[in-house]
Amino acid sequence: MQIPERKLIRLAEAIHQQLKGLQASRYGEVIRRNSCLIESTGQLRRSNDLLMICLGRNWNAAAGKVTDQIVQSLRDLPYYAGEVQRIIESATKAIPSVRDILADLQQAQEEFDDLKYVDDDRTLVVTTEPIELEGYYLGEFEIQLRLGNLAEIKRHSSTYRIVALDPHPAASNDSVTHPHVSDEHLCEGDAGAAIESALSNGRVCDFFQLVHAVLTTYNPHSPYVSLDDWEGRPCHECGYTMQGDGSNWCTSCENDFCDECSSYCRCCDETTCLGCLQNCEACDDPVCPSCITTCDDCGRSICKSCRDEVLCPCVKENEENEDDNDEDNGTQDGGTEPDGTKAPGTQAA
Fold it and tell me: Is residue 143 part of a domain?
């Protein structure tokens, strides 16, 4: 259903008011930028006065420092002057009439049959056809232009959103619904200047056409996520995109990992990520949480195999302690020397 003519007229008037507000804010920006230029010229004047004092008192070293300040101020002048000139040119551009804006809205309605207006959000909306790029189906998108934000053209990227109606996001990032759309914000690329110009001049039809062209074109040099990595799965640890069967499912934490971030349990041979593996304190082999246990005697973390085979280090430690105790006890009770003679200090019975 098309937007009624009367409604289009009101929208044209609203856009016209927004453009007037934008022009006023640009005149304010002229004042701010010109203040910087005036401050720079004032610094030149102050530096010139200081230089005259230095020369009058033969302070040549100080004169050298002052001239450095003058050089810096001279370097700043062209930049400030250029900024003032640029903002004046944009502020003094003629605002299109309500009639011109209305004609543009009518053209947009002819170009985009589904053009609609949402009163609650003061938003013009166009829905794209299902988009497919290089064999990857991405679905339909809504281009939502917030008319109430047109006066904030300085941040024009916040003036509109790109909303996926049937999201087919990148496997590695759910917020990327299109190679050039992240969190409903469009990476405009080379079209940025043209989009800003269209919005600042109330050319709504041109704006929708430009954004539509970006959405239906793939630029492999500046995607949020490359189409080559679109359907891959990210490694849960390092984020590396894994293609096809190149991922490893950890049976302990139940996440996907790349080859560099995974291994296997030396007891049960199950695939396990490096974060879940723990080294047995007896054999030093990496084992999964299901195969790690504790020694009943000393509480060390050992694998089930070492526990079953009684290979905990505490066993050997206990044996050594018993041998030491036996030797001590044997000496105290009157043991024999290795050659069979009585130990010193003992008497025969």
Answer: yes
